[in-house]
Amino acid sequence: MNMQDEVIRILTFYHGDNNFNMNPHVPAEIEHYARAALDIADDDIVLAAIRLSFTKFHRGLVITRDGLFWRNGPKIETTVNHLTWRELSLRKSNFRPKPKSIDLGDGDAIDNTGSINKSSAVINLLDLLIDKYSEQALESDGFVFESGKDELARNIPTNKAELKQENTQSAAEANDGKSFLGDWFKSLLSK
Length: 191
Known about the structure:
By secondary structure, the chain is an alpha+beta fold.
């Protein structure tokens, strides 16, 4: 079996449940917004996405051929939002499940607030993918797939800058709305 088939086999165990979509079943709008919001390169292949918010792509995790990308809500801080498979393999022993996040070590965390997927299940998936990455004979920061064997859909947005700006504005509006509702609710309780 080649590396692409092996990676797809691992992802298939998680596909279809709990907002986990594997390509070609990642909704085009989600892939478009994720590529724009996370600055995923046009030549990278989106393998799967776990969307954690119900709007375009405010929070979530994207698994690509070249690495892992994520976007957190305002309460979970992280120093980066992307790690290559090589970087992930070096940090694997530092992964820790938390109630609302996944600690990746070195101040990096993935927001898992509101997810049906347990943090430990996401770590298990990452461990399996990292083990598969480590089995490669070729030296690379990401998975090495056979050329010409790429059957996965790639939805490359032509308007990345506009999508990124729209997504950022929508996320800010969603956060403002949450604080407004929270403030309103607190004011009711204090009466």
